[in-house]
Amino acid sequence: xxxxxxxxxxxxxxxxxxxxxxxxxxxxxxxxxxxxxxxxxxxxxxxxxxxxxxxxxxxxxxxxxxxxxxxxxxxxxxxxxxxxxxxxxxxxxxxxxxxxxxxxxxxxxxxxxxxxxxxxxxxxxxxxxxxxxxxxxxxxxxxxxxxxxxxxxxxxxxxxxxxxxxxxxxxxxxxxxxxxxxxxxxxxxxxxxxxxxxxxxxxxxxxxxxxxxxxxxxxxxxxxxxxxxxxxxxxxxxxxxxxxxxxxxxxxxxxxx
Length: 257
Fold this sequence. Notes:
- By secondary structure, this protein is an alpha/beta fold.
- The protein is built from ten helices and eight strands.
- An eight-stranded parallel beta barrel has the order 1-2-3-4-5-6-7-8, surrounded by six helices.
- The two termini are 21 Å apart.
- The model has no long low-confidence stretch (mean pLDDT 95).
């Protein structure tokens, strides 16, 4: 599972320093049950330079704990600007960044180039977990497909241009909401080699028992992310362990089929 680090000032006192200390405690408690951490940049950037410094410390601590670090930045802009975003995020200790593909291939290309050069990865927004996603992401195109399936096609193409990772998975993954399990089979068909990052379990109501098809027959094919339900639990370690066990059961339901 992926440990989402979303320190909300309404629940975490002390500004940037408080967010830093909170996240470091959660990492220490929950890391043994996780494979990655996903700091939400907005929760740090709101504090300006101090927040960015806190993010750097949190990312380093997660990496030192043996976790992959996914910067949840959802960046996307014209190619000239995207080059700067790619340089900002695709470097140690960050292993991957979330990317918004709305502007098309030329805007994503700088991220693809940086990922290839640095051995890092991307998770491209395909079908997100929020309720309002259906307003645009599910709109039917002229050929009858929903818009998010066209994005999935692009993600598969972008990934095909880069060497596969160990195990055959692409370094270009897809963000697919755990709140829309009815979309997963089709998206896995369209993106057979993409690792799926699946937010929405826990506070958003996603059911981990329905996520088995997201693995695509590869235990590393799905990364299930939870934030609030773990980091604000009375015992983050137990909450992370329990979710890990549910995700493992989902994998076993398809991995042994």
